[in-house]
Amino acid sequence: MCTWRDDANIAGGRASIHWVTKGEHRGLTDFYAGRQQYELFEPLEPLGGNPTLAYGSYNGRDTGFCQVLVGATDELAFQVGIGQSRDKIGTVDPCQVARRVGGMMLETMRGGS
Fold first, then answer.
1. Fewest CB within 10 angstroms: 16, 58, 64, 102, which?
2. 5 forms bridges with which residues in the sheet?
3. Is residue 65 a contact partner of residue 71, using CB atoms and an 8 Å limit?
4. CA nearest 49: which of 113, 112, 106?
5. Is 91 helix (H, G, I), strand (E, B) or coil?
6. pLDDT tens for residues 45-80?
7. Are 81 and 98 in contact (CB under 8 A)?
8. DSSP letter at 12?
9. Could you tell me the end-to-end alpha-carbon distance of the chain, in angstroms, rounded to an integer?
10. Residues 17, 63: contact at Cβ < 8 Å?
11. What is the pLDDT of residue 87?
């Protein structure tokens, strides 16, 4: 897991990225199979052909929080969690911010960095 947070600002934002090891390592398939357990389950526009969805046990968009899953392969996915700073809550959809961070992660992986 990789986490970034703005400790210098009490109202700061945070982001985390980690590989998902849930289920039988079938990428997003396990999440689609269990979709009824999530309050938020919304497929998003794919990232460079990679399936992407916003999900969570609760819908935290109003409070600036969102988790997005990105299918890296048929067997592997990663999650991006975003907590917006207070000044950004309500101005930008946190799920779209998380999706954007997921795109940066894919670019980094494809670049071999």
1. 58
2. 14
3. no
4. 106
5. coil
6. 999 899 999 999 989 999 999 999 999 888 889 999
7. yes
8. -
9. 16
10. no
11. 87
